[in-house]
Amino acid sequence: MNDAAASLAHLLVREDVRAASAYHVQDARDLIRLDQMESPYGWPPQLRGVLAERLANAQMNRYPDPRAAGVQQRLRDAFGIPGRWSIMPGNGSDEIIQILTSALAAPGARVMAPSPTFVMFRVLAGWAGLPYDEVPLAEDFGLDADAMCAAIAQHRPRLLFLACPNNPTGNLFDAGALERVLEAARDALVVIDEAYWAFSSRDHLDWLDRHPNLVIMRTLSKLGLAGLRLGFLVGDPAWIGEFDKVRLPYNVGVLHQIAAEVALENFGVLREQTRLIAAERARLASILGSDPRLHLWPGEANFLLVRVLAGRAKDVHAAMIRHGVLIKCLDGGHPRLAGCLRLGVGTAEENARMLAALDAGLRETTG
Ligand SMILES: Cc1ncc(COP(=O)(O)O)c(C=O)c1O
What we know:
Layout lengths: L2 H10 L2 H5 L12 E2 L11 H12 L12 H11 L6 E5 L1 H13 L6 E5 L3 H9 L4 E5 L8 H11 L3 E5 L11 H10 L4 E5 L20 E6 L11 E5 L1 H10 L7 H12 L1 H23 L4 E3 L6 E6 L4 H10 L2 E2 L1 E2 L10 E5 L3 H19 L1
Parallel strand pairs: 1-11, 3-4, 3-5, 5-6, 6-7
Antiparallel strand pairs: 2-8, 7-8, 9-10, 10-13, 12-13
Helix pairs in contact: 3-10, 4-10, 5-6, 7-8, 12-13
């Protein structure tokens, strides 16, 4: 490292940026990767062939369509989004969260979310310079509507994030509690993040008609396209029109647009894969739920949350890696998640390996 560059960087870069760590992803070489809530399924060979042909004809010398109109139309068709709502595609939901926090950042503005929840809400509010208020979830990780309404009255947030189903807890918040929070936050923008919509028993798209303060965020990441990076926001044109000004004009590249179009034209294939994952989740839940060494929470996403009752979660996690399976250890990340592991749902074969590694880890660490 050049000393002059280092001292200049120290002088010029924001203090909070210097104090932060870069996003870290654990190396999963030679391991069954079940820590990032990805789909375990690749594309069938026939679809790969179609994709290869379409990509070969991509006009790489041209900038992409700045609105990704072809992607928007296919999103509308695949997800059944009525014409009265606008769509804004982003480079993953992460970029959309960044656009929202940038667009709403102003002196005095605050962001709110229940806790624990998806970490990028807090991280990206921070980079936009927005104070972030966390409201603890109830004992069972349900939405504590009384506490949320009181916190809304006290802090008057401008932007409120609600992940439904929530990550890392995996549960779907009660509809009545959500309605109360939406009503209490009628002077704020509420974002329901439906990243795990495809695995869940309820979605909130038709709530847009009743709540002018609501927008819905979704992603293709959990539908087998995590590598593509395509998220999108759905809402009233009044909201989307403003956010579209903050979005970088060419945020979805030529190759991304083609790949997303091919995927969405074959949405049935992706949906069938999500149905397999949901069925595997139910099977896993019945096994994990009857294990006296664990506490299992009900999950409506493509992962399950358990607390290790016998032994230490960190040791179980390390033992599982030795047995060739990577899951997420949440112990130490948040006080409410002490002793917790997040288990991604893979193929039936991967899940069998995961259960065997978990069993071995529990046996080895409790002696
Ligand atoms: C609740 C939630 N929202 C958004 C995302 C990120 O989605 P994307 O891959 O589209 O950035 C995740 C990823 O794990 C998530 O858990």
